[in-house]
Every structure is written in C-alpha cells, then in structure tokens.
C-alpha cells in the first residue's frame, strides 16, 4: 500500500519540528542562492546573506549538545575498537568547536563584537573544524564498511546467511550514503576556505547537494501501513 497524502504531510511535519531540520532546510536555500547568484551582487545575494544569518538561531546550544556525551563518558566504553571510538570523540569535539566558533561569528555579524579580525579568525576556525570533522566521519564510516562481517558463520543455514547479508547490505548502503555526504561536506568546507580554488557557483552546487542529503537523512520514517484485513 502506497503512502497517503496524510502520511507525506506527517513526515514533512516531523522534519519541520526538528531544529536541525529547519537549519538544514535553510542551508539548502542559502546554497541554492549562492549557486544562482554565482557570488555576484544583487537581490539573490542579499537573500543568501539573510538566510545565512537566520540559520544561526537553530544552532543555539549545539556545542553543549555535542560535548555532553563526552563529559558523561570521559573514558572509552569498550563497545567499539579504541581507534574508532577515539575518531568519534575527536569528531564530536571538532563539531562542537565548529558550532561554538560559528556563534562568535554570529556575535560579530550582529555587532556584539566589533573587531573584524576576531570575526575572520573564528570563521576560519569554524570552517576548519567542520572540514576536519567531516574527515573524521569519512574515516569512521570507511572503517566500519570494511569491517562488515560478510563471511559465512559455522553452522549457519542458507536462509540465516541470506537474512544476515540483507541486513549487512542495508547497513553498508547507509554508511556509504553518510560517507559520500561527508565527502561533499569536506569539499564544501574546502571551497569556503578557498583551500581549493572553487568558484562560488561550484561551492553553491556542493552546498545544495550536501544540504539535500542532510535533509533526506533527517526525514522521519513513514508511518507503518496497517495490514489489510483478510477476506473470508
């Protein structure tokens, strides 16, 4: 049974209820404006600047949200390989710095901090943290894809092996999607930092793709369909 109109609306509402969903949706608009304007002055460029500023509100308290798990569990849990857990901890710290430094940039943009050099310094710190956090995601997801257990276990029947492989394939496809998204984000950060000499329209394209993928990952699951009653 195909999803109904009401189901689609429920999913959209669930997405819009999330602060992160609103952030990623406005990011999609921001980078779409960058792509259309190609960095040239005009009304589209003004819309881009306005939307960029509007995103900041949805990021309040994000640094605390990211570091709280690290503060609760200071050491290693032992549930994952030590190196993989270390990569994830470093990623969380980098992303907390990314959002925290972006708050300082926001404070500069609204006039609370007048020193232009501070705004520029924290802008670079924010983008570098985002880029390196994306690299951590690439490393962590790549590790887990290569470590996926695809060997047949002793005593496992053909049916059991087939079911397990279906689950493994789903996990690998999900991790590949996250890895590709992280590659786009790393390239986007490099473009914004001008580490790679990318034109504004190219940066805008990377931003649109990365934001669209982010929105897709934040979409809630569709309501489960009720089973059809059996006919007598």
TrEMBL record:
Bilayer topology annotation: Multi-pass membrane protein
Residues passing through the membrane, by range: 176-196, 202-222
Signal peptide location: none
Protein keywords: Membrane, Peroxisome, Peroxisome biogenesis, Transmembrane, Transmembrane helix
Pfam families: PEX11
Record-linked InterPro entries: PEX11 (IPR008733)
Compartmental location: Peroxisome membrane
Family: Belongs to the peroxin-11 family.
Protein name in the entry: Peroxisomal biogenesis factor 11
